[in-house]
Specification:
Layout lengths: L10 E2 L10 H7 L2 E2 L16 H14 L7 E7 L5 E7 L2 E3 L2 E7 L3 H8 L2 E8 L4 E11 L2 H9 L3 H9 L9 H17 L8 E15 L7 E7 L25 E6 L2
Antiparallel strand pairs: 1-2, 3-4, 3-7, 5-6, 6-9, 7-8, 8-9, 9-10, 10-11
Helix pairs in contact: 5-6
The structure holds flavin mononucleotide.
Flavin mononucleotide (FMN) binds next to strand 4, strand 6 and helix 3.
Length: 258
C-alpha cells in the first residue's frame, strides 16, 4: 500500500438507503473491508507466467496467517448454462493446471461432464488479495485419484467412501450408519478404491490477481493465454526455454481497471 496520503476509512457494507440501522442491517453496515495493513504489489515486477505468482501469493497468505488458504470457490454451469458455486480444496497447482477432487455423480461432477469449463476464486482477506482462474477442466487418470485418496487421512477416505454426494438424504441417522461403516472400512482397507472419486484439473486460459488497496486503487493483473507464443506481449513469456513453441506457456499480461 502506498502511503502518499492519509488512508480513508475502510468501506462499510453498502447501505440499502431506507433500511433502519438496527439488527441485521446495523451489523452488516458495521463490517469493513481492506481495513488492514495491505502489502504492495508491483505488477511490472510480476513473473511472465501466473503459476509462480500464484505460488508466491499462496506462500504469502500462509505467512500472513490467512486461515484455510487452500480452499476456493469452484463455479460450474449446468447444461442450460445455469451457474452454481461451492467451496472445494485445492489439491495442487502445476504446469498441468489447478487440481481439485470430487465425486463424478455430484452436481458439480455432472456439470463438468456436460460442460467441462469452470472458474476458481480464492479470497485471502489477510492481505486483501483475490485470485480468479478460468479454463477448461480435464479429468486425471483413475490412478491419480487413487493416489490422491491414499495420500490423505483416514477421514478423507471415509468421507469419500460414503459417496452419494449431492443425493437427497432421507435422515441424518442414515448418514451416521453409512459414515460408521465407511470409517471401519477406511481403517481396515487404507487402499480401498472409490470409483466415483475423481481428480479434476483446470487448465487456465485466464488468471487474474487482485491486490486490494486502501485508497481504492486496487491492482488487477490479468494473465491471458495467447494461442500463438510469438504473439505474447512480453518477449520471453515462455515457461520452458527448451520448448518455446508450446502455446500452453505463452501468456499476455494486462492491467484492468478496478
Ligand atoms: C472448506 C470446505 C472444503 C470442501 N472441500 C471439498 C472438496 O475438496 N471436494 C468436494 O467434493 N467437496 C468439498 N466440500 C463440499 C462442497 O462445498 C459441496 O458441499 C459438495 O462438494 C457438493 O457440491 P455439489 O452439490 O455442487 O456437487 C468442501 C466444503 C467446505 C466448506
Amino acid at each position: 500500500m502506498s502511503a502518499d496520503a492519509p488512508i480513508p476509512p475502510a468501506d462499510p457494507a453498502p447501505s440499502t438507503g431506507s433500511a433502519p440501522s438496527t439488527g441485521f442491517a446495523a451489523l452488516l453496515r458495521s463490517q469493513r473491508v481492506w481495513d488492514t495493513d495491505l502489502p504492495d504489489f508491483d505488477p511490472a515486477a510480476a513473473p511472465a507466467r501466473p503459476l509462480p505468482l500464484f505460488e508466491q501469493w499462496f506462500a504469502g497468505a500462509v505467512a500472513a496467517g490467512q486461515t484455510e488458504p487452500h480452499t476456493m470457490s469452484l463455479a460450474t454451469a449446468d447444461a442450460e448454462g445455469r451457474p452454481d458455486v461451492r467451496t472445494v480444496m485445492l489439491h495442487g497447482a502445476d504446469e498441468e493446471g489447478w487440481h481439485f477432487a470430487s465425486h463424478t455423480g455430484s452436481r458439480k461432477g455432472r456439470h463438468l461432464a456436460s460442460r467441462p469449463y469452470a472458474a476458481l476464486g480464492f479470497y485471502w482477506p489477510a492481505q486483501g488479495r483475490q485470485i480468479r482462474v478460468r479454463g477448461r477442466v480435464g479429468v486425471a487418470p483413475p490412478e491419480v485419484a487413487r493416489a490422491d485418496l491414499r495420500a490423505r487421512s483416514a477421514g478423507a477416505l471415509a468421507s469419500a467412501l460414503v459417496g452419494r454426494q449431492s443425493e437427497v438424504l432421507e435422515s441424518y441417522e442414515e448418514l451416521r450408519r453409512a459414515s460408521d461403516a465407511a470409517w471401519d472400512r477406511a481403517r481396515r482397507e487404507p487402499d480401498a478404491a472409490v470409483p466415483s472419486w475423481t481428480v479434476y484439473v483446470l487448465d487456465p486460459d485466464e488468471v487474474e490477481f487482485f491486490q486490494g488497496d486502501a485508497h481504492r486503487r486496487h491492482v488487477r493483473l490479468a494473465y491471458r493465454r495467447t494461442p500463438d507464443p510469438n504473439g505474447a506481449t512480453h518477449p520471453g513469456d515462455t515457461a520452458d526455454p527448451n520448448d518455446a513453441t508450446d502455446p500452453r506457456h505463452a501468456w499476455r499480461r494486462e492491467l484492468l481497471w478496478p
